[in-house]
Write a structure and sequence with these properties.
Length: 267
């Protein structure tokens, strides 16, 4: 189910979806008599690709999602655990450890270490499964954390969690009633907190990896389609699909629980 979810969501991302639409238009032009319809479909795909890589569109979509939670500032309570949620990585001994982590993963880890150092004695929880490689994402982050001066005794690894749902449930076994800070991308924070709240945890949010900005003044920077703006649109759409999946899963779970209670009451 996890792999199927990933494949389907990848195909539903804006760029792959628009490329598939454009390919369909070309097939109409080449193999049918509906050339005019095919040209319209191809034009639609080209315009769509332009818009999703256009800063006024991408930033306007993503920024409200990213700015729901402010940056983490010290709180009066003591913090026991700082948990960094997993992201991507590669395994390549020919490059430095900091380059083996994805940009998202490196920013999350850096923020986690920053928060951890505000609270001496706190532990750093690193999560993430291997994803097909021989090293888990949690272990790769630990490798970088050690290189950045974090003590090995202060690191806890959760190496089997595939997604945020599993990360929250594994974290609950460690945290219990202690204070926790969750570090993840700003765009992902709302979904992440939903998962942690569902297992009875109330962590402090520490969002990072902000992508969207509104104070871009250079005309050539703002109005030229760029890959980084395409990334913003894809991030927004990824979180939108994730929220839909989350709502459907919760609805199905609640429906199942109500059905079981109804069956038990009848018996």
């Amino acid at each position: 189910m996890f792999e199927l979810k990933k494949v389907v969501s990848s195909l539903l991302m804006p760029l792959p979806a628009l490329l598939i639409i454009g390919l369909f238009g070309l097939m109409l032009i080449m193999f049918t008599r509906k050339q005019k319809s095919g040209c319209f479909v191809v034009l639609f795909a080209f315009i769509g690709i332009f818009l999703i890589a256009f800063q006024p569109v991408s930033s306007r979509l993503l920024m409200p999602l990213e700015r729901q939670y402010s940056a983490f500032f010290p709180v009066d309570e003591s913090i026991d655990y700082v948990m960094v949620l997993g992201s991507g990585h590669v395994v390549d001994d020919k490059i430095p450890p900091t380059s083996e982590l994805s940009r998202t993963g490196l920013m999350r880890l850096a923020e986690g270490i920053r928060v951890m150092r505000i609270y001496p004695g706190s532990k750093l929880i690193l999560s993430g499964y291997a994803g097909g490689s021989e090293v888990s994402n949690a272990r790769m982050m630990a490798k970088v954390a050690l290189a950045l001066g974090v003590s090995k005794s202060d690191i806890i690894l959760l190496e089997t969690a595939k997604d945020t749902w599993e990360e929250a449930r594994q974290a609950a076994a460690f945290v219990n009633i202690k204070q926790l800070v969750v570090v993840t991308s700003a765009s992902h924070m709302k979904r992440a907190l939903h998962e942690f709240h569902s297992v009875g945890l109330k962590p402090y949010p520490a969002p990072t990896n902000y992508l969207a900005q509104s104070n871009i003044t250079q005309t050539w920077e703002k109005y030229t389609p760029k890959g980084k703006y395409l990334e913003q649109t894809e991030r927004y759409w990824h979180e939108t699909l994730g929220s839909l999946w989350q709502n459907m899963r919760d609805w199905a779970s609640n429906y199942e629980q109500k059905a079981l209670k109804s069956a038990e009451s009848q018996n």
